[in-house]
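<discrete_fold_record>
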Amino acid sequence: MAAPDQGNLEAPGSFLKTAKIFVAGHRGLVGSAVHRKLTALGFTNVIVRGREELDLTRQAEVEAFFAKEQPRFVILAAAKVGGIHANSAYPADFIAVNLQIQTNVIDAAFRHGVEKLLFLGSSCIYPKFAPQPITEDALLTAPLEPTNEWYAIAKIAGIKMCQAYRLQHGFNAISAMPTNLYGIHDNFHPENSHVLPGLLRRFHEAKVAGLPRVVVWGSGSPLREFLNVDDLADAVVFLMDKYSGLQHVNVGSGEEVTIKELAELIKEVVQFEGELVWDSSKPDGTPRKLMDSSKLADLGWVPKISLRDGLQATYQWYLQNVAT
């Protein structure tokens, strides 16, 4: 097939509720939210496979799956993810596993006639010191954050693979890059979780133990952007239906809070009545990290879940599924 001009394809039509849709990674934070959203919207032919049924790092298994199931749409949310410690300890795993998953799924989807594929990445694809807010054009303009470069490089390769298959083969593959995510099915591990679920767990455990204070690293001044994963799932459905361009699309809330504001809000949601103490001898990290999601807003999508509402829903899920 001839390459489309500048990589743009006309929209293939509606993201049909009766069409067969493969959600890869349906047990993770993002994949489970997408699966939940599609089910709630009345999509009737969503297929999923656990790792014990389909190992996406194995090309032969992926080939056999696509040959048998012949999905019409694919949402690629499967990935090996982790925090700074995991990225530093297992760099080979983070680059190899993610490259294997992406390569196998994207290539098999193209060769088995998938109509449209959406690849999900991460805001860590951008340079460590990218101008704020971060636009899509900032990709590959400066060095990455060293602590997660292995994961970031794999995700950048996924974006470029989607673009290459679009340019050479006319394959309708798009990419979405979400900001910092949180929500139900998040990772609340005491050492490996991200800042929001980590704080939520610490405040809850301090409340249960009757502790007088919670100590948080840093000054509390860094600014961060958070998006509820159910809003991301809504954006994924929107992009599958409305967007067919070459460039990846940022998906963020567009709202920043300081870590101090976040901690105080979590303290309030959890109803921890002790003191919040800041250890300013510990590092703050990047002072600001905000994505420019105006491209998505111009297409007609905006987030709907406020940070407070999202935190309350996440805490209720934590109480029912993790704390017990």
Observations:
- Residues 135 and 250 are 8 Å apart (CA to CA).
- Confidence is low (pLDDT under 50) at residues 1-13.
